[in-house]
Amino acid sequence: MSRFFTGALLINKKPGVSSFRALSPVKRVFHGHKIGHTGTLDPFATGLLVILVGPLTRLAPELTGFDKVYEAILRFGAETDTLDPTGTVVHTSSSLPELSRIHAVLPQFTGTIQQVPPRYSAVHVNGRRAYDLARSGVDVQMTEREVSVHSIDILNWEPPDLTIRVACGSGTYIRSLARDIGIAADSRASLHELHRTEVGPFHVEDSIDADVDAGTVRDSLLCAYDVLGRMTHIACCEALPDAVSAISNGKPFHTAMLVDASAADGCTQLAVFDHCRQLCAMVNRTDEAYRYRFVMPQ
Q1: Fewer CB within a 10 Å sphere, N or C end of the chain?
Q2: Catalytic (active site) residue 274
Q3: pLDDT tens column, 84-126
Q4: Fold for domain 233-295?
Q5: Are 58 and 293 in contact (CB under 8 A)?
Q6: Which of 42, 84, 180, 274 is the catalytic position?
Q7: What pTM was estimated for this model as a whole?
Q8: Residue 54: is it exposed, middle or buried by C-beta count within 10 angstroms (0-12/13-18/19+)?
Q9: Cα–Cα distance between 169 and 71 in angstroms, integer?
């Protein structure tokens, strides 16, 4: 590797491309580095993918758990087996709801709710992905689970299409929302379009297309300080100059190594940087001591 990279890249995924394929141009640019995204989008969907590069890939589970915001178009009148435009119609309704009826049912889908995931989803059922079972003809029985939907706002209503903005917790299926809203409104509906606009503190307005030139991809990489500084549960701390080498070599960590020891107060995770804001280490605080989550190569 001629140069070491670590950070995050914000990609605006195009329709018709899987999340895995959207990583391909990034992998070419950062060849030899670990690459990982933090939450997939279905191929028909568009919008924000947060891609981690280098040691920050170890933070993928935390970023995957961030709240998300979507803009979605629900099409009333038909429900498909996949609950999206790629599927086969399995239910139809000649009844299109009035906007007042839609307004009346939406409150039942906000807050902490029980939701049945789509049969065509990555949820594990008896050790296999639900979509694998569904595609092989198995009648998959999905179990409802608890999800959090913070808000649903109506952006536009042009029958049969309803455009909404959904702010929700991790694990919420917008396809299932489309199905359930359609039934509650005495009709049927599937998700017609989906665009993810936010993942935690990251916004699609700051993203780039994956197929831009290699120089733009490299220049658009958010450094570790920019990434971790947006994460409110992590304290960004500066190491004393004479402690940087000890930290990078994994010597036992203590807050006396920091320029301001109070910066670590109240946080169980620390991101330790040198005076140039280069990441030295991620540190976890336990009841007994501080332990390195990982240290950066020098």
Answers
A1: N
A2: no
A3: 999 999 999 999 999 999 999 999 999 999 999 988 777 777 7
A4: 2.30.130
A5: yes
A6: 42
A7: 0.91
A8: buried
A9: 15
